[in-house]
Amino acid sequence: MPDDALQRETGQGSVGGSGTAAMPFDIAKLDRLMEEAGLDALLVTSKHNVQYLLGGHRAQFFSFMDAMGISRYLPVLVYPKGAPEKTIYIGHRLERYQLEVGRFWVPEMRAASSGSVDAMERAVEAVRKLGLAHGRIGVERPFLPMDAAEALRAGLPEAGIGEALVVLERLRAIKSAREITLLREASERIIASMLAVMARHGAGSTKREIAEDLKCEEASRGLDFEYCLITAGTSLNRAPAEERWEKGQPLSLDSGGNYRGYIGDLTRMAVLGEPDAELEELLGKVEEVQQKAFRTIAPGRPGGDIFAESERAMAGLAEHDCMHFMAHGMGMISHEAPRLPTGGQMTYPAVDAKRPLEPGMVLSVETTMAHPKRGFIKLEDTVAVTAAGWEILGEGARGWNRGGTAAG
């Protein structure tokens, strides 16, 4: 189909499009990854991977929840290896309006489905028309509802089914200059939001009040607020609650905010009044571990090396028993490739620990001290791998920020 003839199918037939857009990802890389995985076609169904492959499109009606209640919203992008001109996107009927005014590289856009089963049935039909009924089809099993998986198996009984999750993660792992810019902007806006909220709140503010204020502040700066993990005083509980922030006590804000499809995820500290010598020392130790971890980040070096260096740095500290270090890939979502060792509350296979870091990868680097007497002290930074080493995206406010300076 010609580039200037996008077909957009709705439940009532086809509607006119508004032209095509530039290809938002590296087709040759995707085809190579599919070849290595032995996949002939992809059925992409996760919101974030569909958004990435379509160059930023996300169905507004289903952005935050499955709004219908009787079925999952299931976008399906059908991509045949080596034939991008035959790619088909199958979306919900309510996406029609966005597809009419958007610009997409995909030749055929169908806003025709109502739920997970009929979306998959249309995808099965598309695979058959591609002549791949006996091919090997890559799916994202963790993002495929059971009823849709059953419809896939019933419709393509002779096809092989393979896992596409790693293929798509490694496709997204190297960020473009545009993506790095969005991640930097997200990080800087979160830091600015945190500083504004810290300054506004004084003695007696509850964690719930502070978290709600941060949500509003991030929204006012163009971010989609995702979460706030917050501690105040000596408590290690990170849920927004009625605990109060009082004079001389530390406050930690760990928040994720999404900017145009890319996540900012940082932690910064504040104190009401002046930090005492012990607080200065403890945050200094957390910063020391962070800086040593940064210096291990370089292209060609295995990502797992970051952990060896941070563990050595923590081992020499008196507080090592209450400290924890983690680094993970991030981009469209908080945890993505490169997948590195975890521990604690986050567990997934460290499939990329021995693989070399590459320029364009982005990491979240975080050091936590859960001090039994002084509370929760943490720094989390977003770091891009560069040709020369590393660069922090969102550098500011790393020390003890003063709370209550704008209160009253």
What is the H-and-E element order? EEHEHEEHEHEHEHHHEEEHHEEEEE
What is the architecture of the largest domain at the second tier of CATH? Alpha-Beta Complex
The percentage of residues in β strands lies in 15-25%
Helix content: 25-40%
Oligomer: single chain
Low-confidence stretches are 1-18
Radius of gyration over alpha carbons?
23 Å
Overall geometry comes to globular
Mean model confidence by pLDDT: 93
Largest sheet properties = 8 strands, mixed
N- to C-terminal distance: 63 Å
Report the structural category.
Answer: alpha/beta
Spatial order of the strands forming the largest sheet: 2-1-6-5-4-3-7-8
CATH topology-level fold name of the largest domain: Creatine Amidinohydrolase
CATH superfamily of the largest domain: Creatinase/methionine aminopeptidase superfamily
Helix/strand layout:
Layout: E1 7-10, E2 13-15, H1 27-37, E3 41-44, H2 47-53, E4 76-80, E5 88-92, H3 96-101, E6 108-113, H4 116-129, E7 136-139, H5 146-155, E8 160-163, H6 165-172, H7 177-200, H8 207-220, E9 224-232, E10 250-259, E11 262-272, H9 277-294, H10 305-315, E12 323-329, E13 362-371, E14 375-385, E15 390-392, E16 400-403
Parallel strand pairs: 1-6, 3-7, 5-6, 7-8, 11-16
Antiparallel strand pairs: 1-2, 3-4, 4-5, 9-10, 10-11, 12-13, 13-14, 14-15
